[in-house]
Sequence to fold (171 residues):
Amino acid sequence: LEYVPTTKQAFHLAHGRGWFYDFAANRWLPSPAEKVNVAYDSWSCYDSTRNRVCVARKDIFLAYDIATDKWSPIQGEGQPPDLGSCAFGALTYDSAGDAVVFLLKGSGIAVYDPARNAWSKASPPPEADWRRRNVNGFYDPDLNAHFYHLAGDSDDNGYMLAYRHRKAKGN
Fold:
């Protein structure tokens, strides 16, 4: 689920169909775009520079263009063969670095640079107890930092990780 500021709606992908939640009308509206082959356990982030939602699952990496209501595949140089699924990492857009940041459980951080259409390995996995823990994450543009919460289902012993891809321009 991603908030899209340009439309003031939330975007959700369910069973291959994009949906927009209209807060003013209090209803879900289907996207006019064709269905895609991502049915479950995908993860996403909103790319504010390109006004699109990036979606990943296993070997699929797609972009939904908000303005044109069209999907397009992304296949950048050096793309990891397995982008995982939502329980095993987090996908966030770094507006200061214009990059899509993937924290892959047990694999570390991989970064997709949309301007170059290329991937790089940014960081090894943090020293953390990954067993039976799912990952949730978000990017805070004011702090220019990615935050990740690792926790098991109904466990009280979760913890937070933080990552900064690069310094913001002008800092």
Q: What stands out?
A: The chain has a mean pLDDT of 91. The radius of gyration is 16 Å. Residues 77 and 118 are 4 Å apart (CA to CA). The chain is about 0% helix and 50% strand.
